[in-house]
Write a structure and sequence with these properties.
binds zinc ion, 203 residues, elongated, alpha/beta, five-stranded mixed β-sheet, 13% strand
């Protein structure tokens, strides 16, 4: 056993365990963070704990696009200035952040909350596909931009959506140019994302 990982007390051990569950936080980082928190003034620690709790208590999903929001609908869906003829489909809410950061897109979004993955048992019913198709029924949307990740699951999802949406008479485009295979949208840089948006191709 790694002796440096033997925690001092039960509560420190518990904190290390919990931090270790976070993505990208290994045992060493969890330990470093736990001891950092231990040294932090109580007031500051309370703010961190409150922030974690309130994100769970106050945040829900937009009833239209399934982005995160603190009210029934999100700021993007509520914004009259957005182009309501376009919907950009993403896998996760953080992908919206990445696309918004480019300021290259003015339309609406739809968050699938996942991607089709037969190997992991994720089918079309497990992501927000039905809700998307419902949104497209009133004829106001003329273009759907598929911005799923460029990995296998993202490509499969894009293909499925394109086959499902095209028959509705809606133009379907795919972010492609400039995004190398395997790219997760949230980690793409602004320039690459903007180019990918501008260079989107009809499917
Ligand atoms: Zn929304």
């Amino acid at each position: 056993m790694d002796r440096s990982f033997v925690p001092a007390t039960e509560s420190v051990s518990k904190l290390i365990q919990e931090l270790n569950k976070l993505p990208g936080i290994g045992p060493k980082s969890a330990q470093r963070l736990a001891y950092h928190i231990l040294r932090t003034p109580e007031e500051q620690t309370r703010e961190l704990a409150d922030a974690i709790l309130s994100v769970k208590q106050k945040t829900k999903l937009c009833s239209i696009c399934f982005n995160v929001t603190e009210s029934d609908t999100c700021r993007i869906c509520d914004n009259d200035q957005r182009d309501r003829t376009k919907i950009c489909i993403v896998e996760q809410p953080q992908d919206i952040l990445a696309l918004e950061h480019t300021r290259a897109y003015q339309g609406l979004y739809h968050v699938l909350h996942g991607a089709i993955s037969p190997t992991e048992g994720v089918g079309t019913d497990d992501i927000k596909v039905k809700e998307l198709i419902n949104r497209l029924q009133d004829g106001s949307v003329t273009e759907v931009i598929l911005a799923t990740n460029t990995n296998l699951e993202g490509e499969q999802t894009a293909l499925y959506l394109s086959q499902t949406i095209s028959p509705l008479g809606i133009k379907v485009t795919r972010l492609a140019r400039g995004l190398p295979f395997g790219t997760e949208l949230e980690y793409a840089d602004d320039v690459t994302l903007t180019r990918a948006l501008e260079g989107r191709q009809e499917l």
